[in-house]
Every structure is written in structure tokens, then in C-alpha cells.
Amino acid sequence: MKGYRFRRTRIAVLLVLIVCAVNTLFPILYAISGSFKTLPELSNAGSRLIPNDPTFQNYLDALTEANFFQAFTNSVMVTVSATVIGTIAAAMCGYAFARKMVPGSKLLLVLMGAGIFLGAGTATIYPRYVMAQALEINNLVGVVVLQLAEITLLTTFLVRAYCLDMGEEVEHAAMIDGCGTFGAFWHVGIPSMRPILTTAAVLTFQWSWNSFQVPLVFTLSRPELQTLTVSVFAIKSAGGDGFGQYTILLAGAVMAVLPIVVVYIIAQRYFMDGLTAGALKG
């Protein structure tokens, strides 16, 4: 009887997972399919996944209309900068909070937690832009700074939770041997935090690469600074017709999402280990 119930539970869970997978994958497959269709085929037979006459012209048009290579370069500069700086900052801050090196850490953690929910909304975009303008960083530097202010709060919490579950014996032994606090962090803490730091790097990369609102506002008057997400979105109205550019828009979106897929595939094992461990405690 128990075995029968167990099988029924497994079947129910499997069905739910299949439904979730289809719900997640169908929009992706539809976008890929639509990117190879002509506009008449997309408008008349949009529900068909396999194109009748596949074409690469949409991708060639997207490369031209979206100023793809310049926008791609801007996105790479912004994302790599945010990922490197954000991961280092999360490692140092999370470790310091976990080892109680920060005075008033409880109050700071409460404020940081509030910042996750309150700091990254539409209501704050204008004052953040005004501050960046006053500091003369209303450019890609400002985009990086604001992205770091948003995602590093979350990754710091993840690193802190991971470090709380790490033993401190080896770190203490290293300090006794004359390593010092930073030496123990660098030689013992960093290697032990590799899974969670990979998770933090992937999350920061994804957040920065997909960021749209901040780059849009900061590059409205300077199209040459547009990131790829903003540049692809601009395709929608490039032809003056709301539907007239959708096949090109889908092609641009497919190309824009490829770097995230590649990064996730490369870092998948460490990403899942770090995300699970970082969520278990703290």
C-alpha cells in the first residue's frame, strides 16, 4: 500500500514538473521559431512552431538595426565589470558579516534586507539618475554602480548564509600560523566559498545582462551607449509599425539571451550547489 501511494506521489510530482517545464520552454521555443519566420508567416500562422520556409534574414537585419556589435560591446563591458566587482564585494561583505567583523551588523542586515525590496523600483529611478548626474556618472559607469547597488545586497546575504555553515577551525589555525585575518579569508575562505561565489557571479551576470530600466534611462540621449537589451527593444518601433518588426525583434532577443545560457551551462554544477547551500542557513 505504501509503495502504491509512493508511486502515485511520484507520478503527480512528475506531471507537475512536466507542466512547469512546458510552460517555461514553450515561450523560448516560440521565440526561436518566430525568429526564423517571415513576417507574413508569423502573422498568419504564428502558432505553428516549425517554419515553412526558414530564413536567416531576421538575424542579419537584427545585427544591422540593433547596432548589435556596439550594443554587445557595451553590454559585455557593463556585465563583466558588475560581475567581477559585485562578486568580490559580496565575498568580502558576506564573510565579514558571517564572522561578526562588522559593528552593528544586525542593524545593517535589516537595512540591507529592506533595500532589496525597496531600492530597485521604478519610483526610485529618477532620484538615482539625478544623483548620478550630480556625480557626473550618468553613463555606463553609473549603470554599473546602480546594478551593483541592487544585486550585491542579495548576493551578500547568500554568501553570508554559506559562510555561517562553514567551519572556522581551519581559519583559526591559519591565523595562529601568522596568516592574519585577510590571509585566512584569501587562502582559506575563498577556496571554500567557490560554489557560492560561482552562484553570486552567475546571478550578477544574469541581473546585469538582462537589466533594462536603468540602461534605458541612462542612455536615452546617448544611443551609442545602449546595452543590448535596450538596443533590441528599440527594434520594436524602428519601422514605425507596432507589429512590423516582430520577427527581427525575436531574432535579436534570441541572440541577446545566448550569453546567459552559455554562462549557466558552464557554471551549472557550482551554481546549483552554491544556491542550495546558501539558502539552507541564515
UniProtKB/TrEMBL annotation:
Any one Gene Ontology BP term: transmembrane transport
Domain of life: Bacteria
SUPFAM superfamilies for the chain: MetI-like
Keywords for this protein: Cell membrane, Membrane, Sugar transport, Transmembrane, Transmembrane helix, Transport
Chain ranges passing through the membrane: 12-32, 76-98, 107-127, 139-159, 246-267
Subcellular location: Cell membrane
PROSITE patterns: ABC_TM1
Membrane topology category: Multi-pass membrane protein
One of the record's GO cellular component terms: plasma membrane
Main location class: membrane
One Pfam family here: BPD_transp_1
InterPro entries the record matches: MetI-like, MetI-like_sf
Domain ABC transmembrane type-1: 72-267
Gene3D superfamilies, alphabetized: MetI-like
Family indicated by similarity: Belongs to the binding-protein-dependent transport system permease family.
Protein name: Multiple sugar transport system permease protein
Organism of this sequence: Ruania alba
